[in-house]
Amino acid sequence: MDAAFTEEQDGIRRTLRGLLRERCGPDEVKAAVRTAPGHDPALWRLLARQLGLPGLALPPEVGGVGCGPTELALACEEAGRALLPSPLTATAVLAAPLVDRLGTGSQRAALLPRIADGGLTAALAVPGAELGGALGLTGGDRGGGWAGGGRAGGVQARECGKGGGEAGNWRLYGQVDQVLDGHSAGLLVVAARTGGYARGRTLLFLVRAGAPGLARTRLTALDETRPQGRIELRDVAAGPLGIPDGGGGGAGGGVAPADALARLGTTAAAALAAEAVGAADAALGRTVEHVRTREQFGRPIGSFQAVKHRLAEVYVKVEEARSAAYYAAWAAGSAAAVSGRGPDTGAAVASGLALATALEAQLAAAGAAVQLHGGIGFTWEHDAHLYVKRAASDELLFGPVHRLRARAAELEGLFAQPDGSGATIDGRLGRKAVTV
């Protein structure tokens, strides 16, 4: 592994940081989140035109830049540093890779160029607030039960005869809450259950904005920089992403939706970890600047040993998380280059642990920012609370941390099957460990 970034990677990070420093300060963030889409469309178009940000990790043949998970993670780190309210996570990290991986030739040709040039945003709608489980980050249900059963809840899909072309005539029913950018995205990738309760399967469907029977509502979210929407599907016409029998026409034709989601989870976790590292580093930097200038008892509060120790602990957490995020992005890129269809276990473990480490660092940096800013830090209107809200919201959306670590331990095989004594054997350490 070469730990040094290439000139191109450094250029992406440097250019994006400079642009966001000019166009995305705290005041601009607060103004953007109060608009109807929850972000600044003009800034999003600028990022698409100058940097190709929406199509950064898409192949050149569909209008993308052709970069990999490492470049996407570096872009997400800078977006997290500025707390950029944008469709980057929903579109470039979650939805677009699925269209590229599973979509038929006609679907990729129709959708991906528009996504890459910033003209079309997309969102992944997973029922039951189980995004982490669907992506294989916090659970191992590969059957897609998180999409809802045939009895009640979730989203159900029903095929009403064969329609024209490869799409068929499918109708969707149900509701999905907490969809990132779900209220404003031009394209929805919806996970739905079909085939009844006993023999059901989960498929992914494409739903266009404005489809008859589709109702969307923006929700009040803890973190306004990650706007969320509620999706209500009332007999909505939809086409399956790829071909329902598994014969997708994308780069990985024949990949099952569950495998594609698990593979997506590996790259998405690395990008989300880098984004959390960016936010944590920015919160730490703001706090360090404050303690250097804020005086108490005739001296800067940053000169007090207790403050130094607190900031040193946060710094170590942030740097640990940064290293883990960079390694996870590298592992995800290496696995994508050599793997066949399914997710790489080593890369999945690295990404899950990186995300857990980054979420912890983000919480620590945000908490220290509030406390070390003193009385002004506790006021709800202070900029420090932007980072507090992001840290708390991210763990609710993509965690919790202990489940991320438990899933990584399960994938790594740290615990063998029960030996009949109510405990499990840790094959590596050669000792018994309590089953949890």
From TrEMBL:
Signal peptide: none annotated. The keyword Hydrolase does not apply. The keyword DNA damage does not apply. It comes from the Bacteria. Keywords: FAD, Flavoprotein, Oxidoreductase. Its cofactor is FAD. Residues 6-118 form the Acyl-CoA dehydrogenase/oxidase N-terminal domain. SUPFAM superfamilies: Acyl-CoA dehydrogenase C-terminal domain-like (SSF47203), Acyl-CoA dehydrogenase NM domain-like (SSF56645). Residues 270-405 form the Acyl-CoA dehydrogenase/oxidase C-terminal domain. PANTHER family: ACYL-COA DEHYDROGENASE, ACYL-COA DEHYDROGENASE FADE28. Belongs to the acyl-CoA dehydrogenase family. This is Acyl-CoA dehydrogenase family protein.
